[in-house]
């Protein structure tokens, strides 16, 4: 999370970034920032901190490619997954079936089911992978659980 994300768009585009994700809480005018990101040829991601209502995303959902639902407070690894953030994922998936929904924070073998069943299709995991005895197995399990839930969801939308 950075302050004044607007000032970084040109630098990220110039460096070759394909997606620019910013925290909704850090922008004074998210709609204008989204337009600026698009004007530089990048996809748009918007992150939401745990205490921020997901309702702030609803008016922007049709303009973004990805929403990152933080399931811990941003800043450091190893925090416990905040289950009360899961309904945000579900609400996004119901309103925006094609949106990439990313979940970041506290994801492990004990919490992946909650995130994937709610509709998350992009998973960020640090501690649970890097401290695992078999990181490849953890990654494979995460991937399989997300893909299984996404397949179920895709069938129900059709």
TrEMBL record:
<dbReference type="GO" id="GO:0046872">
    <property type="term" value="F:metal ion binding"/>
</dbReference>
<dbReference type="GO" id="GO:0004750">
    <property type="term" value="F:D-ribulose-phosphate 3-epimerase activity"/>
</dbReference>
<dbReference type="GO" id="GO:0005975">
    <property type="term" value="P:carbohydrate metabolic process"/>
</dbReference>
<keyword id="KW-0464">Manganese</keyword>
<dbReference type="InterPro" id="IPR000056">
    <property type="entry name" value="Ribul_P_3_epim-like"/>
</dbReference>
<keyword id="KW-0119">Carbohydrate metabolism</keyword>
<comment type="function">
    <text>Catalyzes the reversible epimerization of D-ribulose 5-phosphate to D-xylulose 5-phosphate.</text>
</comment>
<keyword id="KW-0170">Cobalt</keyword>
<dbReference type="GO" id="GO:0006098">
    <property type="term" value="P:pentose-phosphate shunt"/>
</dbReference>
<keyword id="KW-0408">Iron</keyword>
<protein>
    <recommendedName>
        <fullName>Ribulose-phosphate 3-epimerase</fullName>
        <ecNumber>5.1.3.1</ecNumber>
    </recommendedName>
</protein>
<keyword id="KW-0413">Isomerase</keyword>
<dbReference type="InterPro" id="IPR011060">
    <property type="entry name" value="RibuloseP-bd_barrel"/>
</dbReference>
<comment type="similarity">
    <text>Belongs to the ribulose-phosphate 3-epimerase family.</text>
</comment>
<keyword id="KW-0862">Zinc</keyword>
<comment type="pathway">
    <text>Carbohydrate degradation; pentose phosphate pathway; D-xylulose 5-phosphate from D-ribulose 5-phosphate (non-oxidative stage): step 1/1.</text>
</comment>
<dbReference type="Pfam" id="PF00834">
    <property type="entry name" value="Ribul_P_3_epim"/>
</dbReference>
<comment type="subunit">
    <text>Homodimer.</text>
</comment>
<keyword id="KW-0479">Metal-binding</keyword>
<dbReference type="InterPro" id="IPR013785">
    <property type="entry name" value="Aldolase_TIM"/>
</dbReference>
